Amino acid sequence: MSIHVTVLGCGSATPTSFRNPSSQWLDIQGEHYLIDCGEGTQTQLLKFKLRMSKLKAIFISHLHGDHFFGLPGLISSMHLMGRKEKLQIYGPEGLFPILDSIFHCSQTELRFHLEYFVVDTFKSYVLLETPKFEVISIPLKHRIPCSGFLFREKPKPRNLRPELMKFYNVPIYARKKIKQGNDFTSSSGEVIQNSKLTLDPARSVSYAYCSDTAPDESIIPIIDSATALYHEATFEDNLIDRAEQTFHSTASQAASQAKLANVEKLYLGHFSSRYRDTKTIENQACAIFPNTSNVHDGFTFDVM
């Protein structure tokens, strides 16, 4: 399985002429999800030719405007375009009364059902589970309740060795349990170890989204060994005091989190509008965690 990510916006606080507020589009084997929905998200979807009608669920990290002010407009556009399929929305307590109030005051009667799921931002647990992957909440350290999201592929079954299936006359009905890791007992009573009958499966991939947050080592076990981590790096290192005041992270702090968690790849975003050029942020992070890249609006990458 691979996760294809399109960054729709990677700015913080206010939009600029060169950077939109936070939002990301995830394509997971043809299923489409949105993380955060800052102002202008639906315009970005049109710009990058991503069909909002395909969205299955939206995950909102917290109730600062640069992460959800685009949501009412996006939902309204789906309504005007004739969407009928239900839409799942995961977000902190307080989001859903806001949406209900907006649609009530505008006398908007949606043609489709909004299925609300309140996220407990103070604990980590499974929010969504499909046959192939699950989405887990990541409690983040911010000025208001905030949650990140870990998209994690479920462990794959082991690979059977056809020649040994034939050699030991393993019946079809027994092979499912062998793929799940069980040993096999032959008709003669001989126990054949699973490690002899199978090969290791391909690795499972995972993608962690952490924005907005001050550095917090308590999340390291949750994001441990993630294939890719998106972590906010709002400020260059010289503004560490400002980062502490606003519960954000500097470049080096984000990189340190990635290093502690032993992730494979780090992507940085949520840049302050004071920076048009973010190369210094990337360089500061790379000094601690070399496999780091900054993102920009329209940036795409595969987690695989």
What would you note in describing this structure?
It contains 11 helices and 18 strands. The protein is an alpha/beta fold. The chain folds into 2 domains: 3-156 and 202-303, 4-Layer Sandwich (Metallo-beta-lactamase, Chain A); 159-199, no CATH class. β11 and β12 form a beta hairpin. α10 (251-261) runs parallel beside α11 (279-286). The termini are close together. The model has no long low-confidence stretch (mean pLDDT 95).
| Distance between the ends | 7 Å
What is the count of DSSP helices, taking H or I runs of 4+ residues? 11
State the CATH architecture of the largest domain.
Answer: 4-Layer Sandwich
CATH class of the largest domain: Alpha Beta
Instruction: Please give the share of residues in helix.
Output: 25-40%
Give me the CATH fold name of the largest domain.
Answer: Metallo-beta-lactamase, Chain A
Low-confidence stretches: none
**What can be said about the biggest beta sheet?**
7 strands, mixed
Could you give the count of β-strands? 18
Report strand order across the widest sheet: 6-5-4-3-2-1-18
Mean pLDDT: 95
The CATH H-level homologous superfamily of the largest domain: Ribonuclease Z/Hydroxyacylglutathione hydrolase-like
Radius of gyration: 22 Å
Shape label: globular
Q: Indicate the proportion of strand residues.
A: 25-35%
